[in-house]
């Protein structure tokens, strides 16, 4: 028996992010959503220049890994930080934050999240 492989045609489709989650043009490419008991999901999120998330938090934390471009992120009460390819950012459980592209550059990151029956993946503020 071989390793299960999910081809790109078997994944959920690439989609534009909703306006109630993002400012500007953002595209989400779901790349991993294992069946229970796994709690992990992963999405490649493509932020066009100037686009960003609204403030939000993750009950079980979030890690983003920048793969392309130049981005910005901010934790509630903290400074705006510049992020580059290869940077990994951990947002602690329930830490309010946002992230997105700089005004003149796009940014792509792999967003890794957890959720289960007692915890939604994200709460938009």
From TrEMBL:
Cite the Pfam families for this sequence. Cupin_2
Where the record annotates domain Cupin type-2, the positions are: 44-102
Listed InterPro entries: Cupin_2, HNL-like_cupin, RmlC-like_jellyroll, RmlC_Cupin_sf
Checking CDD domains in the record gives: cupin_HNL-like
Know the name of this protein? Cupin domain-containing protein
State the organism of origin: Georgenia yuyongxinii
């Amino acid at each position: 028996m071989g390793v299960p492989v999910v081809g790109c045609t078997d994944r959920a489709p690439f989609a534009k992010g909703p306006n109630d989650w993002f400012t500007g043009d953002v595209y989400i490419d779901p790349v991993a959503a294992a069946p229970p008991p796994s709690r992990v999901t992963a999405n490649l999120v493509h932020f066009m220049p100037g686009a960003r998330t609204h403030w939000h938090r993750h009950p079980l934390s979030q890690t983003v890994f920048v793969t392309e471009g130049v981005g910005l992120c901010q934790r509630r009460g903290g400074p705006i930080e510049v992020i580059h390819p290869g940077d990994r950012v951990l947002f602690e459980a329930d830490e309010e934050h946002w992230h997105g592209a700089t005004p003149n550059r796009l940014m792509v990151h792999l967003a890794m999240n957890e959720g289960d029956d007692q915890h939604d993946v994200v709460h938009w503020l």
